[in-house]
Design brief:
By secondary structure, the protein is an alpha+beta fold. It contains 1 helix and 8 strands, in the order H-E-E-E-E-E-E-E-E. It has an 8-stranded antiparallel barrel with strand order 1-2-3-4-5-6-7-8.
Amino acid sequence: MRPARFIVAATLLALVVASATTSARSAETSRLRGAVKFYLDVRYPQPPGVGTFATSGAFTDSGTFIGYSAGAAPFGKVRIWRRFAGRKGSIVIQDIFSSPETGSWTILSGTGAYAGLHGRGTSIGMGIGTDVPANILPPKRAIGVATGTVS
């Protein structure tokens, strides 16, 4: 009978650990509420851009991101998905914008501390390093700020 008690005890311990881990992630994500700003430094070796980011507000993190073209959006706008990889986890954001680089963003998914995170807001960017309009000669670099709220 001892082996049966051991199996029951081990199973209960595993359930407690799994529950605690899930609760800890939920508690950490639930603390991420309020206003947030993303500061972007975008480079264009490929059209949707790659670069570095830093955040302030509801959470602080920094790291790198890569953009992926997600196709056209209504009314001539552009849809890009950006995957931000920071020290605390990663966030995938959909950014829909038009020229001159103004738009809106929505969190699609997150990992690590950002698992289950929701958020949305507005974004603005500006090409730097050229005086030629972006529709004639796209910039090689841009800076951007995205503001909004997360919960």
